[in-house]
Design a protein that fits this description.
CATH architecture: Distorted Sandwich
Structural class: mainly beta
Bound molecules: beta-D-glucopyranose
CATH class: Mainly Beta
Radius of gyration: 21 Å
Number of strands: 30
Distance between the termini: 44 Å
Number of domains: 1
Strand content: 35-45%
Number of helices: 3
CATH topology: Beta-galactosidase, Chain A, domain 5
Shape: globular
Length: 379
């Protein structure tokens, strides 16, 4: 047999994917070391790859989506998430890039809440408030790889057990994060948790998306749709006032696609002033608990489109307003205001102090879930 025939036979043995014909069974998961932290702790990463050029790397520090490579309309692949090239930087300059955030993503006013008549005090790490789980939240913890699988869907499950009283929250909380990538260009992320005592929680992923990828333009020209007729206005410290305000006639109306930059400087709206732009929880239309469309982000230049569906009642839309150019991320690039879009599905901020908001409570015997589905395409 000629060399050429040998090669062809080998390709046929590998199946249709090797021939670039597409396949229902092409997604793979590979596990590899991802360096170590300054204290010597070894970090690992699992990379999920499908047959259409999408790959997601998840590292054990913070169950973090460390990179997400997606092709543009010409098929050029680029990482569309902000972050760092090595694990220690995620601890040295914490900004929750790609991280799994908990126990309570977003803010709790003055770091205080009561549950069943008992008061709890959390660290205040964001002005007067508690933000994203406190001083050492889930983003700064080492998660264990529980399972890894390849197949029609490649997936990894990471687990973390948070001790009773950790960061001031009651109950031992057992948490898992499962990332799955399929051949339909869908990345699915599901958080689950159980508790030993009644507690409150809000787990989410804090990826900073910039669909331009390696071009690294800012996101002002991205088109955003938010399936939300109402949002929760905030005070000057970004704590919800309790109101659910209609977006109609405000810079918060993204029910049809709008350029991010069009209204982001419109200081006639006090909410834009408080947020320095967008940093608000939108109330996702439809019934919480069922998976439904929440957001679409389109980059007209690269053609990349990301659709997000959620089970959560709300989604925080944040435009990287606190990125100040002092952080240098992947490829030594400075990150500045407006360089990314965060869309963080969860319960509303400060829910433990708002009895009429969807509950953040979890009781023993119940299983908490939060499912986020990201679907990618290019046009
Ligand atoms: C918050 C921002 C905060 C950022 C930190 C977002 O979820 O809404 O106010 O600065 O997280 O990375």
């Amino acid at each position: 047999m000629t060399k050429m025939t040998n090669c062809l036979m080998a390709l046929l043995a590998l199946g249709p994917m090797a021939l670039g014909m597409g396949s229902a069974q092409a997604a793979t998961a590979t596990r590899a070391p991802f360096g170590q932290l300054a204290d010597g702790t070894k970090v690992e990463a699992v990379t999920l790859t499908n047959g259409h050029g999408i790959s997601a790397r998840i590292m054990t520090l913070g169950a973090t989506l460390q990179s997400l490579v997606v092709p543009d309309k010409a098929g050029n692949k680029a990482d569309i998430t902000l972050g760092y090239d090595n694990a220690q930087d995620y601890l040295s300059h914490p900004d929750y890039f790609g991280a799994s955030v908990g126990r309570y993503a977003n803010r709790i006013a003055k770091g205080k809440f009561t549950l069943d008549g008992k008061s709890y005090t959390l660290a205040t790490n964001d002005g007067p408030n508690s933000l994203h789980g406190g001083l050492k939240g889930f983003d700064k913890r080492m998660w264990a790889i529980e399972s890894v699988s390849s197949g029609p869907e490649a997936s990894v499950t990471l687990a973390y057990t948070s001790a009773d009283g950790e960061e001031g929250f009651p109950g031992e909380l057992k948490v898992t994060a499962t990332y799955s990538l399929n051949e339909d260009n869908t990345l699915r992320l599901q958080y689950k948790a159980t508790t030993s005592k009644p507690t409150v929680l809000n787990l989410t992923n804090h990826s900073y998306f910039n669909l331009s990828g390696n071009d690294a333009r800012d996101v002002m020209g991205n088109m955003v749709t938010l399936h939300a007729a109402r949002f929760t206005p905030v005070d000057a410290t970004l704590i919800p006032t309790g109101e659910r305000r209609a977006v109609a006639g405000t810079p918060f109306d993204f029910r049809t696609p709008h350029r991010v930059g069009d209204r982001i400087r419109d200081g006639r709206d006090q909410q834009i002033r408080y947020g320095r732009g967008y940093d608000h929880n939108f109330i996702v239309d439809g019934a919480a608990g069922t998976l439904r469309p929440a957001a679409v982000v389109e980059d007209p230049v690269s053609g990349r489109v990301m659709q997000i569906s959620v089970t959560a009642p709300g989604i925080q839309f944040y435009t990287g307003n606190f990125l100040d150019g002092t952080f240098f991320g992947k490829n030594s690039r400075a990150y500045r205001q407006g360089d990314a879009i965060c869309l963080e599905p969860g319960v509303f901020p400060d829910s433990p102090n708002h009895p009429d908001f969807p509950t953040a409570r979890l009781n023993p015997g119940q299983t908490y879930t939060n499912t986020i589905v990201y679907k990618f395409s290019a046009k």
